[in-house]
Amino acid sequence: MGADSAEGLHCLADLERAAAAILPTAVREFVAGGSGAEVTLDANRAALDRIFVVPRVLRDVSRCATGTTLLGRPARLPLAVAPVAYQRLVHPEGELAAARAAKAAGVPFTVSTLSSVPVERLTAVGGSVWFQLYWLREPGRSLDLVRRAEDAGAEAIMLTVDVPWMGRRLRDMRNRFALPDHVRAVHLAAGPTAAHRPPAASGASGAASALAAHTEATFSPTLTWSSVAALRERTRLPLVLKGVLAAEDSRRAVECGVDAVVVSNHGGRQLDGALPSVDALPEVVAASAGGCEILLDSGVRNGTDMLRALALGASGVLVGRPALWGLAVGGEDGVRRVLGLLADEFRDALGLAGCADVAAARELRTVRRDG
Q: What are 239-271's pLDDT values in tens digits?
């Protein structure tokens, strides 16, 4: 993405609009949509905007350091790129371009089980790579994926715990969304699957999108805490649970030896009516009692959101959809633009809040304003 193509892209909302103008309708709605009436999707953003930070003054902010550690490793920002499936839907290079951009930005990139590029190619980029795991109906296959990620050089395993099956995503159902033949989940299948076949227009077989039918047949609804304990025993890597909203679950995660939890409602794509992630964050932080790192996901769209998350006790945030917007608009350069904007906005927010570094941001007070 050159200077001319970056003209007018001053915030992530600008990139979202630019991506919407490029992507085919069905793909655009697959990326943008949530489940059900999209109440939780909309509430994530509204909840973040209800959090106000109380800035400090008369502090030396001539140098604002944005660096931190995530899962024990240095990162230039308190941010990781979230796992997002099938990125070749929006750009021919897909996850490969996004991983290169994350490396350039100095932040971790999370590879999805449903990635359209193999984990080995993504770790070969040389950045910090985490591997996201869906628990499969054949547990042995799940553990095989963990071993594969370890062998490839992944630095963490992120187990998604809020998808026993895919939520009812009405936009995909109405669009009869299915994968094109050139895009597939390379960690799961060698060729086209049910995810590539449009569902019937009516009747019981048309009740779900092709992707929903495929994931229901592939993912296990029997994932439990015993599965987490077994996974903890089988991997030497840091273990992250993504999809935690309840304080009780955060406490249990610490007891299981989990290294981090991601406070997330899957970007409003699973249970519609689930609590906005930022509203769940304070109780999850308190319940963990410092026993693991806490990351915030779902609705983060600017540097002020990152500051809010830190002030509420998070170690950092995950960003998903914005990476796809950048990928659609400009491939690797587009994702670099997204991460660069977030870096600039976060540094600006730090300084204006009177914080010279990430540690100071965690000491800020917040006020929630409803209405």
A: 999 999 999 999 999 999 999 999 999 999 999
Residue type at 227? S
Q: Which residues are marked as active site?
A: 266
Bridge pairing between strands 260-263 and 239-244 = parallel
C-alpha to C-alpha distance for 21 and 90, rounded to whole angstroms: 12
| Sign of the CA dihedral with 244 first, then 126, 116, and 305 last | positive
**pTM metric for this prediction:** 0.95
CB atoms within 10 A of CB 235: 20
Question: How do residues 191-237 score in pLDDT, each as one tens digit?
Answer: 667 688 777 665 444 457 888 888 999 999 999 999 999 999 999 99
Nearest to 336 by CA among 99, 69, 7, 79: 99
Of 258, 352, 274, 295, the closest CA to residue 40 belongs to 274
